[in-house]
Amino acid sequence: MNKRMVALVGTGGIAQAHIRGWLAHADAELALLCDVRAEAAEETRARHGLDGARAVTRLEDVLASDCELVDICTPSALHAAQVIACLEAGKHVLCEKPMADTLAEAEGIAAACRAHPDRVYLCEHRYLFEPLVIAAREVVSELGPLHWFRQRSAHALPLAPGIQATGAFLDIGYHPLYTALHFMGPATTAFGLRQRFARPDCADDTGLIVLEHERGGSIVEGSFSAAGPMGGTRPLEIYGERGTLIGNWQPKPQLRFFPGAQGAGRPEPGVEVPIPNGAWPVNATRHFLDCVAGTTLPLAGWPQALATMRAYDAALRSTQSGQKVPVQL
What is the pTM of this model? Predict the structure, then answer.
């Protein structure tokens, strides 16, 4: 079997989950570990038993390597420059979310993707690869035309300096934002609120975005200060003309379909929707490999990631003006 050679850029934090994903695939091999801290790359190699992987400290070593796939797990402030350099060097790129720190940086990535259409770019919109969301995607057509979406994401974990600088509004709020767009389609306007209540180390610790779509609305929330005793509860609510989907990750992943028109009386108990086995890192890296092989199209390619950044940018500008802001299409 011919294996795809993979270079991992950034070996801390979320990279550990990505590594577990890569190790699940016999047709891929982590051949290069790149981190500006040599000791971090060496520690990661030892922890995961990656004896065949070479540790380097410069992106230039990645660009000059035989690895055709690059997985970028660095702070978001570095994404634009690193993604563009990899695309220009002929690499296919899987990059952690968010696409970038700013819309201007995201537009730069999109321009590089347009200039290199033979390269695959996949933004790691991890919720799209969660088994619960995969299950929702399989049955959402049963709801008919959709008109309402709501999702919340929160945690109170220690934060890296880059995440402290961007805050919850971008970092954890990005997850329900792209999920809303995935199910509801493009946003036409956005209204945002961002506050700091309990985390003085953050630019903000709580964010709320209200989106208008062509024929519906969404509310998405992200917080580092409101995880609560239930932890990072992330309910998923999708409402359509013919029914409702309600999902949650805690105390265990569960998804229920409630048939019937909205406002038609007390809903029936609903039907349990089977949730497939698997984990998002395995599903995301598998999807990336399949995109590179040409057997599927990216669920979160540059158009989807750019649309998310445009909605985020409109919501960010709304926090400054206090008015809803049109989303660039």
Answer: 0.95
